[in-house]
Design a protein that fits this description.
10-stranded mixed β-sheet; 7-stranded mixed β-sheet; alpha+beta; Creatine Kinase, Chain A, domain 2; 20% strand
Length: 455
């Protein structure tokens, strides 16, 4: 048999064993929105023989116009995942091809390209994700409110009663993650009313990104089935903590499996190797540009800020710094061997965020950058004058500032690659600038309340 015939036979056998009747051929657009076609198992050859066709211009920002040929979603059969809540359904993540060639606007392919360059250097990139989300309901006036009407505590973080009231939803998600082999290890009520976090084990970056896309899709689906809505929006409520997507990352030796970020003899006491420090310095050096991808919406910049870290305030970073087990830093070192980037939020496209973060970190390694001594201060209360005196860089105040920083960053420009229309960063920045302008052109209730009769 040919390779295609073998792949089809293997997938068909697996589908038969699992009782699969339909496949979702899934990919994400620039924003990270999952798009799919449903393929009956009887038409499996559509997937394995070429891929499912999509009108790319209609799917989202994928570099296409109505005049362009179809995008073909070619499945990665290693991503085969059963939908535990829907017997008979399996999801496969896909890479987009156009006229037989990989389509360079595809976020998943962009990540694969950066990972391949790292592997050529003998490196494996592992990432673990902490994806926070709210459970909400729509109000009669079209707004949103916390789904649990009793979740009104002024300090709800880790609240056992809040966990209990959402027990059915949370335990269902946990059981499904474990059925999928993801090793769910913690579930908690987060810092805001109605906010939760459910953790699963780290893996290589591509697997973790695929899992995060499926996880968000699963959480949305289960919330809807329960009459609620889930949101990973960075700042859905002005007076409550926002949703982060904290990414824990590390590099490993591709040949030996050795952990390259760990050093128990670290003189700075954080358990990091010189390579890890240079990686962290790269993330700090590229932080302003990186924010355009790790914090990619107008709403993202309402999550950032300086303030007392009480429930209902903010735990998001304001400055490009690193420290030990210190949650006021952009980069936190919870233990030796890994680095947590807290400057990433729930709206991030994980393929692009991981690709950009790895590129920034590798640049720091290549240049042997040193981030200096870890910052041990509470940056939420450090005076602005002291921040300036130390030369600490602030994170961008808006998406527009971040997009401007991105197009000026040559490392990220090279890493995210070229497209038929030029460099991907220019296409990405164009989409994000248009998003900013669309928001900026709307006259808000705040403006009319403040300015209508002021003058």
């Amino acid at each position: 048999m040919t390779g295609i015939e073998t792949a089809e036979a293997d997938l068909r056998a697996r589908a038969e064993s699992d009782g699969v009747e339909f496949f979702f051929a899934m990919f994400v657009d620039l924003h990270g929105k999952p798009c799919a076609k449903m393929i009956p198992v009887q038409a499996l050859s559509v997937l394995t023989g070429g891929g499912a066709g999509f009108a790319g211009f209609a799917a989202g920002p994928m570099g296409q116009t109505p005049a362009d040929p179809d995008m073909i979603a070619v499945p990665d059969l290693d991503s085969y995942t059963l939908a535990p809540w829907q017997p008979g359904l399996a999801v496969v993540q896909c890479d987009i091809h156009v006229e037989g060639e990989p389509w360079p606007y595809t976020p998943r392919l962009i990540l694969k390209g950066v990972l391949e360059r790292a592997r050529a250097r003998g490196l494996v990139y592992n990432v673990g994700c902490e994806a926070e989300y709210f459970l909400v309901r729509r109000t009669d006036d079209g707004g949103i409110t916390v789904a649990d009407p009793l979740d009104r505590s002024g300090a709800p973080c880790y609240d056992a009663k809040g966990l209990t009231r959402m027990y059915e939803h949370l335990t269902t998600v946990s059981k499904y993650m474990n059925q999928l082999g993801w090793s769910n290890y913690a579930n908690d009520h987060e810092d805001a009313n109605g906010q939760f976090e459910q953790n699963f084990a780290y893996s290589d970056a591509l697997t973790s990104a695929d899992r995060l896309i499926f996880y968000r899709y699963m959480v949305h689906t289960l919330a809807h089935q329960a009459g609620m809505a889930a949101t990973f929006m960075p700042k859905p409520f002005a007076d409550l903590t926002g949703n982060g997507l904290h990414m824990h990352s590390s590099l490993w030796d591709a040949q030996t499996g050795a952990e390259l970020f760990a050093d128990p003899a670290d003189p700075r006491g954080l358990g990091l190797s010189p390579m890890a420090y240079s990686y962290a310095a790269g993330l700090i050096d590229h932080a302003q540009a990186l924010a355009a991808i790790t914090c990619p919406t107008v709403n993202s910049y309402k999550r950032f800020g300086v303030g007392a870290p009480n429930s209902g305030a903010t735990w998001a970073p304001a400055y490009a710094t690193y420290g030990g087990n210190n949650r006021t830093q952009m980069l936190r070192i919870p233990e030796g061997g890994r680095i947590e980037n807290r400057g990433c939020d729930g709206s991030a496209n994980p393929y692009l965020a991981m690709a950009a973060q790895l590129a920034a970190g590798l640049d720091g390694i290549d240049r042997e950058l040193d981030p200096g001594e870890p910052n041990r201060d509470n940056l939420h209360v450090l005076p602005a004058g002291e921040v300036a005196k130390r030369g600490i860089k602030s994170l961008p105040p808006t998406l527009l500032h971040a997009a401007d920083a991105l197009v000026a960053d040559e490392v990220l420009r090279e890493a995210l690659g070229k497209t038929p229309g030029g460099d991907y960063v220019d296409y990405y920045a164009k989409v994000k600038r248009e998003e900013f302008q669309a928001w900026h052109s709307v006259v808000s209730d705040w403006e009319t309340s403040r300015y209508l009769t002021l003058f």
